[in-house]
Amino acid sequence: MTTATRRPRIAVHKFSSCDGCQLAFLNLGEPLLALAETVDILHFAEAGPIDEEAEVDIAFVEGSVATSQDAARLHGIRQRSRYLVTIGACATAGGIQALRNLHDADEWVSGVYAEPEHIDLLADSTPIAESVRVDLELWGCPVSGEQVLGATKSLLAGHLPRVDHSAVCMECKRQQAVCVMVAKGQPCMGPVTSTGCGAICPRWQRDCYACYGPAVQANVSALASHLADSGMPAGDIARRLLFINGHAEPFRREGLDWQARVITRQGREEEQG
């Protein structure tokens, strides 16, 4: 789509999300201004320009598919884009709103809204890739602005960027951060989570919550078993797995397994009186 007669074109589209990934893009500051001198940003409502129908070289998409109108709108964006890149947990894995996939969404809507028939809400919150072809997924909650900038430069140069999916534990070693799981017994998700955040939580003595999705060859079952052996209740293990990126495999598969154990135990307790 890019030609010698015009500058590359970029769009940033929002679906169901909190806008945090768009803000990460905006918070780049001067590097974003420098990028704007070499490309035309045709649609980025958070920043000002609005032209959702524009044909672009790169379309960044934040947010999950949550309404019946989202899918149709998304197909149009795909048709008008050379590359489609999802940014953040919502776009890549359904986001925290995908927690409703585990429950009856209609029941929730009826409990919140006086006239639920006016609410256009799908039963599930799904990643963009379940509706259209995605060329590149950038994880994070929020995504790293530097990662988005690097991906933009790579795509405009004609090749996909290398995305590091090694575990956060590797980043902790590089940053010389003390392991919070070993030193403090915290239920850290770092062993099964992709790096990209710079291990910010462990470096501040907090356990990882898996913001950047599953690491390559993540042994989630082994981590869950370790947490159970450390005394963590099955329900807490399920909630830890079925959280920010809970719709992503293998978090979803293992999380549902531990959730089923809770339901089974509760059933047995009810039978026993």
Automatic annotation (TrEMBL):
One of its GO terms (molecular function) is 3 iron, 4 sulfur cluster binding. Keywords: 3Fe-4S, Iron, Iron-sulfur, Metal-binding, Oxidoreductase. The keyword Oxidoreductase applies. Residues 18-152 form the NADH:ubiquinone oxidoreductase-like 20kDa subunit domain. Its cofactor is [3Fe-4S] cluster. The keyword Oxidoreductase applies. It comes from the Bacteria. PANTHER family: COENZYME F420-REDUCING HYDROGENASE, GAMMA SUBUNIT, HYDROGENASE SMALL SUBUNIT. This is Coenzyme F420-reducing hydrogenase gamma subunit. It comes from Halomonas fontilapidosi. The lineage of its organism: Bacteria, Pseudomonadati, Pseudomonadota, Gammaproteobacteria, Oceanospirillales.
